[in-house]
Amino acid sequence: MEKRKTIVIAAIVVAIFVTSLSMGCVDQQKEESVTEEHQESKEVVQTDDAAQKLKESEGVKKEPDSSDSNEVLLTAADNGTEVGVKNGQALAVVLDSNPTTGYEWEVAEAPDVQVLQQVSEIEYESAPNPEDMVGVGGVQTIRFNVVGAGRTALKMVYRRSWEKDEAPAEIFAIDVVAR
Protein backbone atom coordinates (compact mmCIF):
# COMPACT_ATOMS: atom_id res chain seq x y z
CA MET A 1 0.00 0.00 0.00
CA GLU A 2 2.87 2.36 0.87
CA LYS A 3 4.45 1.73 -2.54
CA ARG A 4 1.15 2.53 -4.26
CA LYS A 5 0.91 5.83 -2.32
CA THR A 6 4.45 6.70 -3.39
CA ILE A 7 3.56 6.00 -7.02
CA VAL A 8 0.42 8.14 -6.79
CA ILE A 9 2.33 11.01 -5.18
CA ALA A 10 5.03 10.77 -7.85
CA ALA A 11 2.37 10.79 -10.56
CA ILE A 12 0.74 13.89 -9.06
CA VAL A 13 4.09 15.70 -8.92
CA VAL A 14 4.71 14.78 -12.56
CA ALA A 15 1.19 15.95 -13.47
CA ILE A 16 1.86 19.34 -11.92
CA PHE A 17 5.18 19.57 -13.76
CA VAL A 18 3.64 18.55 -17.09
CA THR A 19 0.79 21.02 -16.59
CA SER A 20 3.26 23.85 -16.01
CA LEU A 21 5.14 22.87 -19.14
CA SER A 22 1.98 22.72 -21.22
CA MET A 23 1.02 26.26 -20.21
CA GLY A 24 3.37 27.72 -22.81
CA CYS A 25 6.76 26.83 -21.39
CA VAL A 26 7.47 24.07 -23.89
CA ASP A 27 9.34 24.95 -27.06
CA GLN A 28 7.65 23.32 -30.06
CA GLN A 29 10.99 22.76 -31.80
CA LYS A 30 12.17 20.76 -28.79
CA GLU A 31 9.03 18.59 -28.95
CA GLU A 32 9.59 17.98 -32.66
CA SER A 33 13.22 16.97 -32.10
CA VAL A 34 12.17 14.47 -29.40
CA THR A 35 9.67 12.96 -31.84
CA GLU A 36 12.31 12.76 -34.58
CA GLU A 37 14.79 11.16 -32.18
CA HIS A 38 12.16 8.57 -31.19
CA GLN A 39 11.61 7.65 -34.83
CA GLU A 40 15.31 7.24 -35.64
CA SER A 41 16.74 3.76 -35.27
CA LYS A 42 19.68 3.42 -32.93
CA GLU A 43 22.32 0.71 -32.77
CA VAL A 44 22.23 -1.62 -29.74
CA VAL A 45 25.64 -2.01 -28.11
CA GLN A 46 26.24 -5.27 -26.21
CA THR A 47 29.09 -4.47 -23.79
CA ASP A 48 28.40 -2.86 -20.42
CA ASP A 49 30.93 -0.02 -20.95
CA ALA A 50 29.60 0.73 -24.41
CA ALA A 51 26.01 0.48 -23.16
CA GLN A 52 26.76 3.01 -20.41
CA LYS A 53 28.29 5.39 -22.98
CA LEU A 54 25.25 4.90 -25.21
CA LYS A 55 22.95 5.72 -22.26
CA GLU A 56 24.87 8.87 -21.40
CA SER A 57 25.09 10.11 -24.98
CA GLU A 58 21.55 9.31 -26.08
CA GLY A 59 19.52 10.01 -22.95
CA VAL A 60 18.72 6.43 -21.98
CA LYS A 61 16.99 6.41 -18.61
CA LYS A 62 19.18 4.69 -16.05
CA GLU A 63 18.10 1.50 -14.40
CA PRO A 64 17.59 1.65 -10.64
CA ASP A 65 20.95 1.51 -8.83
CA SER A 66 19.52 -0.45 -5.91
CA SER A 67 18.99 -4.18 -6.24
CA ASP A 68 15.90 -3.70 -4.02
CA SER A 69 14.04 -1.90 -6.81
CA ASN A 70 13.00 -4.35 -9.46
CA GLU A 71 10.42 -2.00 -11.00
CA VAL A 72 11.22 0.85 -13.38
CA LEU A 73 8.60 3.59 -13.09
CA LEU A 74 7.90 5.68 -16.19
CA THR A 75 5.71 8.79 -16.45
CA ALA A 76 4.81 11.35 -19.10
CA ALA A 77 8.23 12.92 -18.51
CA ASP A 78 9.78 9.80 -20.11
CA ASN A 79 7.80 10.17 -23.34
CA GLY A 80 10.03 10.01 -26.42
CA THR A 81 12.98 8.49 -24.59
CA GLU A 82 14.92 5.28 -24.76
CA VAL A 83 14.71 3.25 -21.56
CA GLY A 84 17.33 0.75 -20.47
CA VAL A 85 16.10 -2.24 -18.46
CA LYS A 86 17.39 -5.62 -17.37
CA ASN A 87 15.88 -9.02 -17.98
CA GLY A 88 13.64 -9.89 -15.02
CA GLN A 89 12.73 -6.30 -14.14
CA ALA A 90 9.20 -4.95 -14.14
CA LEU A 91 8.21 -1.81 -16.03
CA ALA A 92 5.28 0.36 -14.88
CA VAL A 93 3.94 3.20 -17.03
CA VAL A 94 1.88 5.68 -14.97
CA LEU A 95 0.05 8.38 -16.93
CA ASP A 96 -2.48 11.06 -16.00
CA SER A 97 -6.00 10.16 -17.02
CA ASN A 98 -9.60 11.22 -16.56
CA PRO A 99 -11.98 8.49 -17.77
CA THR A 100 -15.01 10.64 -16.85
CA THR A 101 -14.24 12.59 -20.05
CA GLY A 102 -14.29 9.38 -22.08
CA TYR A 103 -10.53 9.46 -22.63
CA GLU A 104 -8.42 6.49 -21.61
CA TRP A 105 -4.95 5.19 -22.38
CA GLU A 106 -4.65 2.15 -24.63
CA VAL A 107 -1.74 0.30 -26.18
CA ALA A 108 -1.59 1.32 -29.86
CA GLU A 109 1.55 -0.62 -30.79
CA ALA A 110 2.25 -3.60 -28.59
CA PRO A 111 5.89 -4.33 -27.77
CA ASP A 112 7.76 -7.43 -28.93
CA VAL A 113 6.56 -10.19 -26.56
CA GLN A 114 10.03 -11.75 -26.68
CA VAL A 115 11.29 -8.66 -24.82
CA LEU A 116 8.37 -7.11 -22.94
CA GLN A 117 5.11 -8.77 -21.86
CA GLN A 118 2.06 -6.96 -20.49
CA VAL A 119 1.15 -8.55 -17.15
CA SER A 120 -2.18 -6.89 -16.35
CA GLU A 121 -4.95 -4.78 -17.72
CA ILE A 122 -4.53 -1.01 -17.50
CA GLU A 123 -5.55 0.02 -13.96
CA TYR A 124 -7.12 3.34 -13.01
CA GLU A 125 -6.61 5.04 -9.65
CA SER A 126 -8.48 8.23 -8.81
CA ALA A 127 -6.54 11.18 -7.43
CA PRO A 128 -7.16 12.07 -3.78
CA ASN A 129 -10.54 13.79 -3.60
CA PRO A 130 -11.30 15.03 -0.06
CA GLU A 131 -14.26 17.13 -1.22
CA ASP A 132 -15.89 14.28 -3.19
CA MET A 133 -15.93 16.34 -6.38
CA VAL A 134 -17.28 14.67 -9.51
CA GLY A 135 -14.99 14.22 -12.51
CA VAL A 136 -11.67 14.31 -10.68
CA GLY A 137 -8.93 12.66 -12.70
CA GLY A 138 -6.25 10.27 -11.60
CA VAL A 139 -3.68 7.98 -13.18
CA GLN A 140 -3.74 4.86 -15.30
CA THR A 141 -1.00 2.29 -14.80
CA ILE A 142 0.06 -0.48 -17.13
CA ARG A 143 2.65 -3.06 -16.11
CA PHE A 144 5.06 -5.15 -18.12
CA ASN A 145 7.71 -7.74 -17.32
CA VAL A 146 11.06 -7.73 -19.14
CA VAL A 147 11.36 -11.33 -20.36
CA GLY A 148 14.32 -11.23 -22.73
CA ALA A 149 17.13 -9.17 -24.19
CA GLY A 150 16.49 -6.99 -27.22
CA ARG A 151 14.95 -3.76 -28.40
CA THR A 152 11.28 -2.97 -28.75
CA ALA A 153 8.96 0.02 -28.96
CA LEU A 154 5.88 0.74 -26.89
CA LYS A 155 3.27 3.22 -28.11
CA MET A 156 0.19 4.21 -26.15
CA VAL A 157 -2.55 6.64 -27.13
CA TYR A 158 -5.00 8.66 -25.04
CA ARG A 159 -8.33 8.65 -26.83
CA ARG A 160 -12.01 7.97 -26.62
CA SER A 161 -12.69 4.35 -27.56
CA TRP A 162 -15.51 5.30 -29.93
CA GLU A 163 -13.36 7.83 -31.84
CA LYS A 164 -10.93 5.40 -33.52
CA ASP A 165 -10.76 7.57 -36.68
CA GLU A 166 -9.80 10.69 -34.72
CA ALA A 167 -6.23 11.60 -33.82
CA PRO A 168 -5.45 10.77 -30.20
CA ALA A 169 -5.38 13.60 -27.67
CA GLU A 170 -1.95 12.41 -26.47
CA ILE A 171 0.69 9.87 -27.46
CA PHE A 172 3.19 8.16 -25.18
CA ALA A 173 5.99 6.36 -27.01
CA ILE A 174 9.26 4.89 -25.75
CA ASP A 175 11.98 2.60 -27.02
CA VAL A 176 12.97 -0.14 -24.59
CA VAL A 177 16.43 -1.69 -24.63
CA ALA A 178 16.61 -4.82 -22.50
CA ARG A 179 19.80 -6.66 -21.66
Shape: globular
**Total beta-strand segments:** 9
As for the CATH topology, it is: Immunoglobulin-like
Cα end-to-end separation: 30 Å
Q: Can you give me a brief rundown of this structure?
A:
The chain is built from 3 helices and 9 strands, in the order H-H-H-E-E-E-E-E-E-E-E-E. The protein is an alpha+beta fold.
Question: What does this molecule look like?
Answer:
This protein is of the alpha+beta class and 179 residues long. It has one domain (2-178): Sandwich (Immunoglobulin-like). Helix content is 26%, strand content 33%. It has three helices and nine strands. The protein has helices at 2-25, 28-39, 48-58, and strands at 71-74, 82-85, 90-97, 103-109, 116-118, 123-126, 138-146, 150-160, 170-178. The strands form two sheets. Strands 1, 3, 5, 6 and 7 form a five-stranded mixed sheet that branches.
Keywords:
179 residues; alpha+beta; Immunoglobulin-like; four-stranded mixed beta sheet; 33% strand; globular
Secondary-structure map with pairings?
Blueprint: H1 2-25, H2 28-39, H3 48-58, E1 71-74, E2 82-85, E3 90-97, E4 103-109, E5 116-118, E6 123-126, E7 138-146, E8 150-160, E9 170-178
Parallel strand pairs: 1-3, 2-9
Antiparallel strand pairs: 3-7, 4-8, 5-7, 6-7, 8-9
